[in-house]
Amino acid sequence: MIELDRVSKRFAPSAPPAVEDLSLTIDDGEVLVLLGSSGCGKTTTLRMINRLIEPTSGTITIDGRDVQSMPVHELRRGIGYVIQQSGLFPHRTIVDNVTTVPRLLGWDRKRRNARAHELLELVGLEPELAKKYPAQLSGGQQQRVGVARALAADPPVMLMDEPFGAVDPIVRAQLQREFKRLVKDLGKTVVFVTHDVDEAIVLGTRIAVMQTPGHIAQLDAPADLLANPASEFVHDFVGNRTVVYDQAGNASGYKLETPFP
Ligand SMILES: Nc1ncnc2c1ncn2[C@@H]1O[C@H](COP(=O)(O)OP(=O)(O)OP(=O)(O)O)[C@@H](O)[C@H]1O
Ligand SMILES: [Mg+2]
Hints:
alpha/beta; Rossmann fold; four-stranded antiparallel beta sheet; 26% strand; binds adenosine-5'-triphosphate; binds magnesium ion
């Protein structure tokens, strides 16, 4: 369980806060989506969890341990991080990219290679790609490598910053489907950042709608968010999406009603 308690971040004393008084609990095994417009503080929130950014005030705990009290390398060993725009090292091969963390952990080459091949298969990439460089791969393939790299040391927690942002809608839907299966099979706790409402609905166990400056406007399961937006801001953000109920009265889907302009 990850807990943020009244966390704020100011990048400069005179600057407005990027994140303000944000409290949030992420349960084990859930996919918690941070949804919001550009600049609302999603990346900042994510990066405070693995301490790439230090909060100005407030506390963050993982399983009851204050992350500030943990050595950074120990903290990050338990947290996979997928960066906005895949963030692969351009001069390293795919296999070397994927095994970045195992190399830091001192695994020998044989074990690293075996793990890399396992991971490439897991994320649906051909083993032949292992020796290539990131620029030789398509955008969707690169994003898969980014996910494989984050999974390499089998961390219980994954932080994912718009991991499927740079691909076309068809590849994106495919990556989302595979991601859902993967998370379910591997039992990870995921904090997933996106500004795409539909992606949030499809992937999230719960969605935290963020509003500038970095605080939560509403936190709910997708169907509840659509059915009962807590404010005009949330209503406008989720747009004309209405929940569809089955005969038993359970939320079974949603539809988008957009008139032609
Ligand atoms: N290193 C930094 N120094 C100064 N200001 C920063 C820094 N990083 C972020 N900010 C500011 O903090 C605010 C939140 O930024 P953040 O990157 O968290 O937004 P975001 O929600 O991830 O946006 P996007 O969807 O565009 O990625 C913005 O106003 C941004 O300009
Ligand atoms: Mg961001």
